[in-house]
## 1
Amino acid sequence: MKIAVIGAGIIGVTTAYELACDGHQVQVLERRGAAAEEASFANAGLVAPGYLLPWDGPGMPGRVFGSMFSRHAPMKIGLPLSGRDLLWMWNFYRACKPAAYLAHRSRLHQLAIYSRERLYNIGAELKLKYERSAGYLVLLRSPRDSKMMQPGLDVLRGAGVAFKELTAVDARKIEPALNSEMVFHGAIHLPEDEVANCRQFALMLKNEAQRRNVEFAFNTTVTDVNRNGSMVALGIAGENTLRSFDAAVICAGVDSVRLLEPLGLKIPLTAIHGYSISAAIREPINSPASAIMDEHYKVTIARLGNRVRVAGGAELGGPTERKRLGTLQTLYKVLHDWFPGCANLSSGVQEWKGARPVLPTGIPMIGATGIAGVWLNLGHGSNGWALSCGSARIVSDLIGGKKPGLDAVDFAASRLRA
Ligand SMILES: Cc1cc2nc3c(=O)[nH]c(=O)nc-3n(C[C@H](O)[C@H](O)[C@H](O)COP(=O)(O)OP(=O)(O)OC[C@H]3O[C@@H](n4cnc5c(N)ncnc54)[C@H](O)[C@@H]3O)c2cc1C
């Protein structure tokens, strides 16, 4: 089949690659000049099926509102809020009931495990050498942090996730560069989770996809998606004629909403913005060996090759272009608390803000829409990198009429047909 993939973030690139492996003729349409320029550009890089939790945890709405006025709060409401944001908040509130949360968490966990296997297989088959480090340490500053973790740990136990509760002394054996002056309560170690460079992997896989004859059309903005006879016809900015395909897979992140609305598909997807800073490592001996998460501030610090990346913040509403200074300051503070002097912060620091495409339940939409030829692979929220390879494999199987390796019913896009 001749298939268009709209968007060349990590989801679009992995989708294009899988479709090409299945023998389809694929064209990727991307409005930016290169792949992985938006949400997939400088994310935290965690591939952490063990510690992957949806946003809709019990008590989360209270935490969001309770933390609005605190300086270093991990969650913020950005103004102005749109009607869509308010509707999203209502749906999110409803998804936070304990039973719904456990069901969502279990589905995400299965997809993440499936995805990690596919990521490893692709990496091994193609001999891809991207920046990655094994192991994930969740640091607990106080007994209170530890107490708040307990329900989450019960979920991990139930799911059979390998983890260890550590004292601060034992945590330092795993991350010897942790600030010796920092007094903290303990840590959770997840040895099977890892951190890896999402953008680097996306660019490498894009090259591999091109070797399989996938055509990448950059600086190409899709303006609308239509049905035309038996074909899907795409309008492109600056072109007078529509481009026709047998099928199109929408992987356009947050902007998928605008493309799908005219087709009667109302997707309750919103942007939850997050931030990262990336800086050259100044002193390897003072730097993290892999990834850590400061559970109190919900900030990760990870080693990516010769750089350290600090990521965090969750901001609903407001524009992507406007950076909140306070959140960036929190990232610098947390880095300084745990690894003082590890990075060169005087010049060349990359400060970034990205938009996580988040559905209220945190469960992505993967599959048919009910409109012939129009498929979705979107809404991966804060776990798009970790879920990408499995999601792409599933959508390619579904398009090819094959049974996916993981039951895809729970991810069906048709669940939200207006
Ligand atoms: C601070 C932060 C930290 C994160 N940390 C992690 C993490 O540790 N682990 C993890 O798994 N995930 C993490 N994420 C989430 C992850 O980055 C996203 O889920 C993922 O990048 C989404 O990928 P995507 O391909 O759907 O979207 P994008 O990467 O945004 O790609 C969508 C693409 O579609 C293109 N596009 C949109 N509209 C059009 C159009 N009309 N025509 C043509 N092209 C179009 C855009 O230009 C873009 O390139 C994090 C996100 C943030 C912000």
Note: The two ends are 28 Å apart (CA to CA).
## 2
Amino acid sequence: MGAEFGNRAVVVTYPDEFSRREILELAKAGGYEVAEVVTQRTIIRSEYGVGSGKAQELEGKVAESKSDVIIIDESVTSAQANNLSKLTHVAVIDRERLILNIFAKRAATTEAKLQVQLAELRYQLPRARDEVRHSTKGEQAGFMGMGEYEVDVRFRTLKRQMGFVKQKLEKTRTARDLHAAERKKLGVPFVSLAGYTSSGKTTLFNRLTAESKEISPDLFTTLTTTIRMVTFPKSKSRVLLSDTVGFISRLPAYLVESFKSTLDELRHADLVLLMVDASESSESIGIKLTSCRDTLSELEVDPAKVILVLNKVDLLDSKTRAEIQADPLFSDYTTVKVSAVRGDGMRQLRNRILELAGGRRESRAAVQGKR
Ligand SMILES: Nc1nc2c(ncn2[C@@H]2O[C@H](COP(=O)(O)OP(=O)(O)OP(=O)(O)O)[C@@H](O)[C@H]2O)c(=O)[nH]1
Ligand SMILES: [Mg+2]
């Protein structure tokens, strides 16, 4: 079935298990069928990204497996991609391109589409020089460096397009800020879900809000922000809960930047529920947590307002389940164990939310009541 879509891929990644698993999931989310995985310790060599021996090997593997594309789990330059493409006779896409393709495929709202467009232009900018050179190859680079003019025109076109997209995004952002102002007026604590892609944010969101937003094992199922009012049973306390795009490691800064208006919600949150897939290996949890922590600090989110939600505990054996909160990995945080799928730990989670976000609101209300 795959061949008619031209989606058979040979993947080049680093030799560690985490990288291998993640790029396979990304490839799947991008709609590729992986025929072969090749590993390499360094993927940033000058000519092909991979070493020239590995490039030869790739040529063979592509032919053998009748693949249509090579996916490189790293950011490579256009020149490197073009060189490798020429040698192997198939298209070469890098990690950034793959993530952009997934985002483009999944973008459903105007804002997400504009964000993807902006990211796309940012991806092209540093590659413009190589692209122009590649397309004008054969022409003489003569007096005053022919080709520089074309490069210049291309740069200016990209910059102008970025300006347009940013203006449009600014308008959607103004609408969003209005919403934020309305939210403030309600005086209800604002709680944001955050975390690595596929940690179970939307599953928890659906459980707490009785929504039915799309969930899936694929990476980057959610790209846009949804906000819902939640009334907790018993206490009848209310919070606003938001679900948003997930994080991933080695995400280029401009992609985070392009999604800034979506991720900005996190900065305004009274409380951030940082979801962790606790069913994974300690190594994976560590890598993902570091990546989330870095992204949150880039967004200037105060660590004091983060609750770590250890999700998917239904998949743990009873011993690990009993001990997991004591793992030194989590020592900096307030933690709650839950299973978003089964509903375990919801009462504890609600209590924690009310303690940390609701308490503040009540004291404010109490102060106002005294006036
Ligand atoms: N076993 C188990 N699976 C879970 C649990 N929570 C979520 N999942 C599964 O994990 C996968 C990802 O869940 P999502 O809710 O889509 O994750 P997300 O964090 O919203 O992912 P993105 O939107 O892609 O960033 C789905 O296949 C869920 O069924 C849980 O508590 N236990
Ligand atoms: Mg989601």
Note: Residues 195, 197-203, 215-217, 219-222, 246, 311-312, 314-315, 339-341 surround guanosine-5'-triphosphate (ligand 1) (CB under 6 Å).
